[in-house]
Design a protein that fits this description.
The protein is mainly alpha-helical. The protein has helices at 3-6, 9-16, 24-31, 34-57, 64-78, 88-94, 99-115. The model has no long low-confidence stretch (mean pLDDT 77).
């Protein structure tokens, strides 16, 4: 005998109007818009990653085009209190990052990179890159090395 069959019709109707017990975390999980906001946060993270990558890539730039890219990224990072959605401060705060801390870290990284002496790569040239001796090709002259255009 099940529980429902032992209840009278009046008890069944009353059980429909009893409140369900729900934990606050369970309620908030259903109300929050996690999945709706995820694409925007991924876009914000991509914008931040691109700016930091440009900043690091062009920090030691010498040509005008690279210097302008560095300038754009640096200007965007330095701007404090921007009120538009994709400002550096808004992106960092929406991602749970401290914008002042990131600015300071990037500034320290740039100072450290610019004070380092540039390192040159040294390439050793050799006749054969594998270090093996080439075998001479011996031909008896019976076959032509290059076919004539008329014979093709």
């Amino acid at each position: 005998m099940t529980y429902e069959s032992s209840l009278t019709m009046e008890e069944r109707v009353q059980s429909l109007f009893q409140p369900d017990t729900v934990l606050p975390a369970q309620y908030l999980d259903t109300v929050r818009r996690k999945t709706h906001l995820e694409p925007e946060k991924r876009l914000m993270l991509s914008v931040l990653e691109d700016a930091v990558a440009c900043f690091q890539k062009y920090a030691t730039a010498r040509d005008a085009r690279s210097k302008s890219r560095l300038g754009e990224a640096e200007e965007w990072i330095r701007e404090e209190g921007g009120d538009w959605l994709f400002s550096f401060d808004n992106i960092c705060e929406s991602l749970g990052l401290n914008p002042k801390y990131i600015r300071g870290g990037l500034r320290q990284w740039k100072e450290k990179t610019l004070t380092k002496p540039p390192q040159a790569k040294v390439y050793q040239l050799s006749e054969n890159p594998r270090g093996q001796k080439k075998r001479p090709v011996i031909s008896d002259g019976s076959e032509p090395r290059y076919p004539k255009a008329a014979e093709r």
